[in-house]
């Protein structure tokens, strides 16, 4: 997610810039008492409205109620885009600094400084570019100047907090003669996870999310249908009375054991001995040589 707003630099009074010893009298804008040269400065107010406003202020203070422009807790990258004229002035300046400050109620919460310079172009390339832009300039009235675009990552991973939200951004150039054709400030949110997918692939991500939700609902309805259509299987009678069954089994085993003891000590064996093993029935089991032996003794 990117919020891009234009920047308009205030160059101040040019008569002071034309001073012969401008570099000698150069001071930073924070030291107002010793300041002679006004450095180009652009302040972007983001405290009012959903997308901020383009560097104008309310006359009535009651209408200037501050509104947080960023989401608290999220991280953002601040990128300054400069379109610098490829002129002899910018080439002679060489390297200059682009200072960026994040403000909360005119209190600086973050600052950075990045070097920038205009690359000198070859005269053949410059002449060819001017010839190419000659026809659009004459026919359509477009400007045929040659410029170089510089994209500067001023602040990386700035975390906006609820108790000190970002209300304004100030951008300052360290040289008063820098010629800027166009400038803008972009606030890029560092998205991750579902937010990143929703921002870059909104259609695919939303379709998959809807299908997942619908699938979960259909599965839940199917489970409920199975539960209502097929009741649980009935358990065998008395299955819930395991303790009573155990006691009954113990009593049954005890009765069987007592019956066995009674049978062992009953008259079954006695009846068998008295009725089956009598003198007549066991006569054939006697010794056969008992009678001859007795007869021999008698003789």
Automatic annotation (TrEMBL):
Major localization listed first in the record, in broad terms: endoplasmic reticulum
Transmembrane segments annotated in the record for this chain: 201-228
Annotated GO CC locations: endoplasmic reticulum membrane
Region of interest called Disordered, as start-end residue ranges on this chain: 236-271
Alphabetic keyword roster: Endoplasmic reticulum, Lipid metabolism, Membrane, Transmembrane, Transmembrane helix
Gene Ontology biological-process annotations: lipid droplet formation; lipid metabolic process
Location in the cell: Endoplasmic reticulum membrane
Record protein name field: Seipin
Lineage: Eukaryota, Sar, Stramenopiles, Oomycota, Saprolegniomycetes
């Amino acid at each position: 997610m990117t919020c891009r707003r234009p920047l308009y630099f205030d160059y101040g009074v040019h008569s002071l810039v034309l001073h012969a010893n401008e570099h000698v009298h150069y001071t930073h804008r924070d030291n107002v008492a010793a300041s002679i040269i006004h450095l180009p400065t652009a302040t972007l107010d983001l405290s009012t409205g959903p997308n901020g406003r383009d560097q104008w202020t309310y006359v009535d203070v009651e209408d200037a109620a501050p509104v947080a422009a960023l989401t608290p807790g999220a991280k953002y990258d601040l990128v300054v885009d400069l379109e610098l004229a490829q002129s002899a002035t910018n080439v002679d300046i060489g390297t200059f600094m682009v200072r960026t400050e994040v403000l909360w109620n005119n209190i600086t919460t973050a600052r950075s400084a990045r070097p920038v310079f205009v690359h000198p172009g070859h005269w053949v390339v410059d002449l060819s570019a001017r010839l190419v832009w000659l026809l659009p300039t004459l026919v359509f009235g477009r400007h045929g100047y040659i410029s170089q675009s510089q994209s500067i990552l001023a602040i990386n991973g700035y975390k906006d907090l609820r108790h000190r939200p970002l209300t304004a951004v100030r951008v300052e150039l360290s040289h008063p003669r820098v010629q800027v054709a166009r400038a803008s400030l972009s606030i890029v949110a560092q998205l991750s996870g579902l937010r990143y997918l929703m921002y870059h692939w909104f259609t695919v991500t939303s379709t998959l999310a809807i299908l997942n939700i619908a699938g979960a609902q259909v599965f839940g309805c199917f489970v409920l249908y199975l539960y209502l259509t097929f009741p649980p299987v009935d358990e065998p009678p008395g299955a819930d009375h395991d303790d009573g069954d155990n006691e009954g089994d113990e009593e049954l085993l005890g009765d069987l054991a007592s019956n066995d003891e009674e049978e062992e000590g009953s008259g079954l064996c006695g009846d068998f001995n008295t009725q089956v093993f009598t003198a007549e029935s066991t006569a054939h089991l006697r010794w056969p040589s008992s009678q001859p032996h007795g007869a021999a003794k008698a003789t």
